[in-house]
TrEMBL record:
This is Acyl-CoA dehydrogenase. InterPro entries: Acyl-CoA_Oxase/DH_mid-dom (IPR006091), Acyl-CoA_Oxase/DH_mid-dom_sf (IPR046373), AcylCo_DH-like_C (IPR036250), AcylCo_DH/oxidase_C (IPR009075), AcylCoA_DH/ox_N (IPR013786), AcylCoA_DH/ox_N_sf (IPR037069), AcylCoA_DH/oxidase_NM_dom_sf (IPR009100). Keywords: FAD, Flavoprotein, Oxidoreductase. It comes from Exophiala bonariae. One of its GO terms (molecular function) is acyl-CoA dehydrogenase activity. Residues 300-449 form the Acyl-CoA dehydrogenase/oxidase C-terminal domain. PANTHER family: ACYL-COA DEHYDROGENASE, ISOVALERYL-COA DEHYDROGENASE, MITOCHONDRIAL-RELATED. The keyword Oxidoreductase applies.
């Protein structure tokens, strides 16, 4: 057994993961001047022959999506499964990968050109993160860059020009890493009840305008904050007007993008099931001094601003999920073809083959929903049913694909050598975060079907 390559029994399967054609290397900055000529269209099928490169000929990708796929696939080919298994084992943030993605400007894929971005859409960003996860990087790879791609959407939309320059430029260049602080231990999904607070201290002139030295004092707790061990910055949501002082609970919350100052914030890592390379943390802070200049948009209007990025995040999480699903399926098909028991490949048994075939169909169906949601988002559609449905369907399809991949490997599915156990542990994440399956069903029941609010 071991991890040897397959023995050529896949003549009937064409190039899902073929080697890329010989073409010039492409960076995100490429989009500023030109685009790649379209490749010939092929059917979407899986070749388990090659694990180094991902298939580039999906028939439905636009030219710019295909260019993204090709360039990201090329970067990811330098970070094989063994890199991610080691990062997991050593519990080490994938710095080299983050730098490789930042190096070619990819962190600015959706950001304005004047701050160093490429102004592409969520549809291209979804291809980017799907490709990262699908390369075998799974959530460790996707989460290492995820927040930096879409997370500063509220700054892009509501920040001043000075803030955009100060905040977006170093993020896009990979000089700053940012984390995202919304969830709190005592309130969970009931975000509007969050208990952390910020109190303004005015030391500038009395005219009412912002003075130098004006700041907020933040006190409270956050939980599950990804990358806080390595991030220099945090986008944090906190209450500036108590619930009793507002007419609607969505009012009175404010958003800050500021230094994650370790002398003022106690950060404790949470031991967890998977994705050990990318940390998750509890944060505790008491009178943490945050400059008033780091408030994004208007005080008390933070919830609306954070909501703006939510649909985009759901689309990206969904794309990452199907990426893992395809990675698991690729490995399962590879194994099912080469593992012989009872005198034939196990994949010749319909009991092994059919669940994998079903997973391909489920992943493709979720993929269509993701790219429909992304297209609508890029066209300015603001409602959340497609983004939520895409996240739900993708997470479930990916979970099933990973589970089936583990089972198709038999005992070796439980061994680290074949990587599917790592995918399986990580694929739980999109079922839980950033919003649970139940809350998505609540949303669809209420907003789409017009049923009474159930909670
Ligand atoms: C690996 C990982 C990384 C994360 N990264 C971040 C991050 O970077 N930043 C951040 O802010 N957060 C992050 N989160 C937090 C994540 O968004 C939350 O865990 C998630 O939103 C669920 O909240 P909770 O854990 O408090 O669940 P709870 O609110 O305690 O809910 C528990 C369960 O009860 C169900 N439930 C609750 N209320 C209802 C209801 N009314 N109807 C039906 N079911 C209900 C939920 O669906 C869920 O299944 C991360 C979480 C994980 C696991």
């Amino acid at each position: 057994m071991g991890s040897k390559r397959p023995n050529g029994s896949f003549a009937t399967l064409s190039q899902y993961f073929t080697r890329p054609r010989s073409r010039p290397s492409i960076s995100c900055n490429h989009f500023k001047s030109t685009t790649t000529p379209p490749l010939p269209r092929h059917t979407r099928s899986i070749s388990v022959r090659a694990t180094e490169y991902l298939q580039l000929h999906d028939p439905d990708l636009t030219d710019s999506q295909r260019t993204v796929r090709e360039a990201i696939s090329k970067i990811c080919s330098k970070f094989p499964d063994s890199y991610w298994a080691t990062a997991e084992k050593e519990h080490r943030f994938p710095v080299e990968f983050h730098q490789a993605i930042a190096g070619d400007g990819w962190l600015g894929i959706c950001m304005p050109a004047e701050y160093g971005g490429s102004e592409l859409g969520i549809a291209e960003a979804a291809v980017m993160v799907q490709t990262i996860a699908e390369s075998g990087a799974a959530y460790a790879g996707a989460s290492a860059v995820h927040m930096n791609i879409f997370g500063l959407e509220p700054v892009r939309k509501f920040g001043t020009d000075e803030q955009k320059r100060r905040m977006l430029v170093p993020l896009i260049a990979g000089e700053h890493r940012a984390c995202f602080g919304v969830t709190e231990p005592n309130t969970g999904l009931d975000t509007l009840k969050l208990q952390s607070k910020a109190v303004k201290v005015k030391v500038g002139d009395e005219s009412g305008s912002e003075g130098e030295g004006d700041h907020y004092l933040l006190s409270g707790q956050k939980i599950w904050i990804s990358t806080a061990q390595v991030a220099e910055k945090i986008l944090i949501l906190t209450r500036t007007t108590p619930l009793e002082g507002v007419t609607k609970p969505s009012q009175g919350l404010s958003l800050f993008y500021t230094d994650l100052d370790r002398s003022q914030v106690q950060i404790t890592e949470i031991p967890k099931m998977g994705r050990a390379a990318v940390d998750s943390n509890s944060l505790f802070f008491d009178d943490w001094k945050v400059p008033a200049a780091d408030l994004i948009g208007q005080e008390n209007h933070g919830f609306k601003m954070i909501m703006h990025g939510m649909n985009a995040e759901r689309i990206l999480i969904a794309a990452e999920a199907i990426g893992i699903g395809y990675a698991a399926l690729r490995r399962a098909a590879l194994y099912a073809g080469e593992r012989h028991v009872f005198g034939r490949p196990i994949g010749q048994n319909q009991g092994v083959q059919h669940p994998l075939a079903t997973s391909w169909m489920e992943l493709e169906a979720a993929r269509l929903m993701i790219y429909q949601a992304a297209r609508l988002y890029d066209e300015g559609y603001e409602a959340g049913e497609y983004a939520n449905a895409a996240k739900f369907l993708a997470a479930e399809a990916a979970y099933k694909a990973c589970e089936r991949a583990v089972l198709a490997h038999g005992g070796m599915g439980y061994a680290k050598e074949y990587h599917v156990e790592r995918y399986f542990r990580e694929v739980m994440i999109p079922r839980i975060a950033p919003v649970s399956r139940e809350m998505i069903m609540n949303y669809i029941g209420q907003r789409v079907l017009g049923l009474p609010k159930s909670y």
